[in-house]
Specification:
Elements lengths: L5 H19 L2 E2 H8 L3 H13 L3 E6 L9 E5 L5 E7 L3 E8 L4 E8 L7 H19 L6 E7 L3 E3 L4 E5 L4 E4 L1 H6 L6 E4 L1 H12 L8 E6 L3 E7 L2 E3 L30 H4 L1 H11 L11 H13 L3 H25 L3 E5 H22 L2 H5 L2 E4 L6 H16 L36 H9 L3
Helix pairs in contact: 1-3, 1-13, 2-3, 6-13, 8-9, 8-10, 9-10, 9-11, 10-11
């Protein structure tokens, strides 16, 4: 297991302070110390660094009934831009945010069935990233980083998608491929972590201790926040709940096992639920997951008996699976997130709550709230943007190596080792600002 260094701890503290400021701007250093548990001296030092970097700004003083008034700081929204990329099985969505994590521009790229070779996915991402930067009119130097979420298991340090079962990807060097088209620093993780961070910052997990974020899309998983912080597991693989067995000898899953949760409550599984119930239903579009889920949602609203039965059965499967998480983790809140949950909404939520109540133990169920995600934007893009922010903060005080040529010469002799294009050290060079701060008279 990798041991934390003093630099890692400082980065984590810097990130924690900035997160609190983004969530509750404007705020005082004293309030930040109370919220983070850090000493006032440490908070003051970190705030000073972030002010010098242009990420924060002083905004006056709070009203005081007596004593020395407390200075207030807020996020400098124009101090940089962050990009979040949501790579899903049927689309690529990219959003560009300011430093307050307000969406400035957005681009979507549809992916046809079978259009999942790495080079095809990379082309869609590159096109969408270029589009959001152009729409927002942001100078390239202002982009602090691009957070990329891709389904499956990922190695963050190497920038590799180790295994994506729905695409049969194995050891795909995704960030190296993206770096050939995108000049900004790149940071990789998966949608489970992205959704969970989004809920921690702005959603139903904010201020909570233990949370489960159930990601319902083509794939299914459960992001975990324990003790108010993201839980990754020893190999960054925590949350692969979609590949736990729900039905013995059940449906074949892309992972090679049978009866996985994902095969009954992911979008393709819901389509199969519909097909088994009513093979010739007009609600079913065999070639379009989104169209089918949207048709089911409209059918439920219109009290169509087939749609009602499909959502009821899906809720029963999902509730049985979530009950195991409630019993195992005893969370404060379970959040249903991503596009399938958003489309089916309250009718699915009600079925899930009822099913969890039947299957979970009484005491942990009574302590758990089950809700839909309240985040109005794409939670995966939002969470991915925070990964870019974390990477940018990690680069504070490090030198930036020279960029490799954009168009290296071809031929075997040109294949020399190059600096990793997605390395966090290639973020904005914040060292001069910190050196200026250290050189100031006290």
């Amino acid at each position: 297991m990798k041991r934390s260094t003093s630099r890692d701890i400082r980065t984590a503290n810097r990130y924690q302070v900035l997160r609190q400021i983004i969530a509750r701007s404007p705020t005082s250093r004293q309030e930040l110390a109370a919220a983070t548990g850090l000493s006032l001296v440490t908070v003051a030092t970190l705030v000073g660094e972030l002010l010098d970097l242009g990420m924060l700004t002083e905004v006056g003083f709070e009203d005081s009934a007596g004593g020395r008034p407390r200075g207030l700081v807020a996020v400098n929204a124009s101090g940089g831009a962050l990009i979040g990329v949501d790579i899903a099985e049927t689309y690529v969505r990219v959003e560009l945010f300011d430093l307050a994590l307000t969406t400035l521009s957005r681009a979507d790229e549809d992916m046809r069935p079978g259009e999942n070779r790495p080079e095809q996915v990379v082309a869609h991402v590159a096109a969408a990233v270029g589009s959001v930067v152009a729409q927002a009119g942001v100078e390239g130097a202002r982009v602090l980083g691009v957070g990329v979420s891709v389904p499956g298991q990922v190695d963050r340090d190497r920038g590799v998608c180790e295994y994506a079962p729905n695409w049969d990807w194995h050891e795909v060097p995704l960030l190296d491929l993206l770096a050939e088209h995108i000049a900004h620093p790149l940071f990789l993780d998966n949608p489970l972590r992205a959704c969970t961070v989004a809920e921690l910052w702005f959603g139903a997990a904010r201020g909570r201790g233990d949370t489960v974020v159930v990601n319902l899309g083509t794939g299914v998983g459960a992001g975990l926040a324990l003790g108010g912080g993201l839980h990754r597991g020893v190999s960054n693989s925590a949350g692969e709940w979609g590949h736990t067995t729900l039905v013995l000898d059940g449906r074949l899953c892309h992972c090679g096992n049978h009866g996985c949760v994902e095969t009954y409550v992911g979008a393709p599984g819901i389509m199969l639920n519909l097909q088994e119930l009513s093979p010739h239903s007009t609600l079913l579009d065999p070639e379009d997951q989104t169209a089918t889920i949207d048709a089911l949602a409209r059918g439920v609203a219109a009290q169509d008996p087939v749609a009602l039965k499909v959502v009821r059965d899906t809720g029963r499967y999902l509730g049985a699976g979530i009950a195991t998480l409630v019993n195992l983790i005893n969370p404060e809140v379970v959040v249903l997130s991503s596009w399938v949950a958003a489309a089916l909404g309250a009718p699915l939520l009600n079925e899930v709550r009822e099913a969890v109540g039947r299957h979970a133990l009484r005491r942990p169920f009574a302590a758990t709230e089950i809700v839909l995600s309240p985040i109005p934007t794409d939670p995966v893009c939002l969470g991915a943007a925070t990964f870019a922010l974390e990477g940018a903060l990690q680069s504070v005080g490090t030198a930036r190596p020279e960029r490799a040529p954009a168009d290296p010469p071809s031929g075997p002799s040109s294949r020399q080792p190059q600096p990793r294009p997605h390395s966090p050290s290639r973020g904005p060079d914040f060292r001069p600002a910190l050196e200026r701060r250290r050189s100031r008279p006290s």
